Amino acid sequence: MGISVAWMWLGPVVPLPALLRGTGMLVSALLIPLALILVPVFWFRRVPRKKRKVAWELTVTLIAAVGIAFLAYGAGDDHALQERGRWTKAVVAKVEDRKSDKCTLRTRDGQEISPLLGEGDGCDAERVGPGDELTVLYDPEGAAGPADEMPSSSYGGVVAGLAALIVATGTCGCVRMNRWDNAYDGDTA
């Protein structure tokens, strides 16, 4: 779990190539959380498959693992912008008005700013349109998303709390499932 958090955080900080960042997101937000549930359910269980059940604690573990992956990525984005971000006047080239608005930005000299500016970072389709000028903090490496203000949040406490929750609920859930296995052994003897 720690490696996945580090991978998510390092993606924008180092910056890792887009393929590695995408793979990190897939592994950290999907595969590792699913493994936290599926391994205890299917591995080394003495209970027949039709009688198996999952401890509710593992559901909490799954949700916390997905949350920690996204928080680590956000923390990495913020750190990357604080370390190497540059302020610039950007022109809005295109606005995608969807559930979550996204703006394509270009610098005054025509260079595209990558990735897209999100709704929470200053792109609001109701108040921003093509041709508007915004002052944004962007990552010249293109790994961290642009923002309209300097990020100042610290995710350390939340990430540590979620990690502790994952360990506690995962351990508790696995212990309960082991007790069910032992009780099944007692019933069949």
Question: Could you characterize the architecture of this molecule?
Answer:
By secondary structure, the chain is of the alpha+beta class. It contains four helices and four strands, in the order αααββββα. The protein has helices spanning 2-13, 18-42, 57-84, 156-188; strands at 86-96, 102-107, 112-118, 133-138. The chain has a four-stranded antiparallel beta sheet with strand order 3-2-1-4, with no helix packed on it. β2 (102-107) and β3 (112-118) form a beta hairpin. The model has no long low-confidence stretch (mean pLDDT 84).
Briefly characterize the structure:
The protein has 189 residues and is α+β, with helices and mostly antiparallel strands.
Largest sheet: 4 strands, antiparallel
Percent helix: 40-55%
Number of strands: 4
Mean pLDDT: 84
Helix count?
4
User: How do the helices and strands follow one another from N- to C-terminus?
Assistant: HHHEEEEH
- Low-confidence stretches are none
- From the N-terminal CA to the C-terminal CA, the straight-line distance is 38 Å
**Alpha-beta classification:** alpha+beta
Q: Assess the beta-strand content as a share of residues.
A: 15-25%
Using only C-alpha atoms, the radius of gyration works out to: 22 Å
The outline comes out as elongated
Strand order of the largest sheet: 3-2-1-4
Highlighted features:
189 residues, 4-stranded antiparallel sheet, alpha+beta
